[in-house]
Design brief:
This protein is of the alpha/beta class and 222 residues long. Helices cover 32% and strands 19% of the residues. Strand 1 and strand 2 form a beta hairpin.
Length: 222
């Protein structure tokens, strides 16, 4: 349940849970037809003991600990606060990165984490729309307003907030609004095209979107 990148500064991605409240239809954990968890997956949380033991045996140049994973949202883990604190207790760890859909926990929790860890803690929020309806088309099960409130709370508290926006066929016209809002709240936004079949942007709309992105000078990833 971890992915290790062996570089000068080693980064380990800990997949600490396979629980998630969202029903994203192109996610590996989700049955595309029903939106429910695929039968082959048993939702589970990594134990604190296992996590602690991994860190004790981690490379001495482990500088970045990431909580992401492909099959769950780290914020679903009941001990995410303890895991984050433990990661920072490792002498070599400089940065902890958490990827989340943003709709879990409360603004108060994010404020506390931002005040405690500051810019050393990076939380990347996957929010793919400028309205609840638009975001729900992919991130079904996520409260968009809660996600936005959480992202703002973390950023305002001094945390290192980031915003990942995936372009689908239904939200490409919202990219400029999202970019302008990100600039307004001083949170960097990464814009990337969806490359999976579900919600894949049409060739016609991609041409239009490319032109839009270039006209306003937004960097993006294909």
């Amino acid at each position: 349940m971890l992915n290790i990148s062996m570089e000068i500064n080693t980064q380990i991605d800990f997949a600490i849970t396979t629980y998630c409240q969202a029903k994203c239809r192109s996610c590996q954990r989700t049955n595309e037809d029903t939106g429910e968890v695929n039968s082959w997956l048993t939702p589970t949380h990594m134990s604190y003991t296992v996590f602690d033991n991994i860190l004790k045996k981690a490379p001495s140049n482990l500088h970045i600990a990431q909580f992401c994973g492909e099959l769950g949202d780290p914020m679903m883990h009941p001990m995410i606060t303890d895991f984050t604190t433990r990661a920072f207790a490792e002498p070599s760890v400089i940065t902890v990165v958490i990827n989340t859909n943003g709709g879990l926990r409360t603004p108060d929790w994010y404020t506390t984490m931002g005040e405690k860890f500051g810019g050393d803690l990076q939380i990347i929020f996957g929010i793919d729309g400028m309205s609840h309806e638009s975001n729900w088309k992919y991130r079904e099960g996520v409260d968009w307003q809660r996600a936005m409130d959480n992202m703002l709370a973390f950023g305002n508290a001094g945390g290192n907030a980031g915003w990942h926006f995936i372009i689908f066929d239904w939200n490409w016209q919202e990219v400029e609004e999202a970019y302008n809002f990100a600039c307004q709240i001083n949170i960097p936004i990464t814009i990337k095209y969806n490359n999976r079949d579900f919600g894949l942007i049409s060739d016609e709309n991609k041409i239009k979107c490319d032109e839009l992105l270039k006209s306003i000078g937004i960097r993006y990833e294909n």
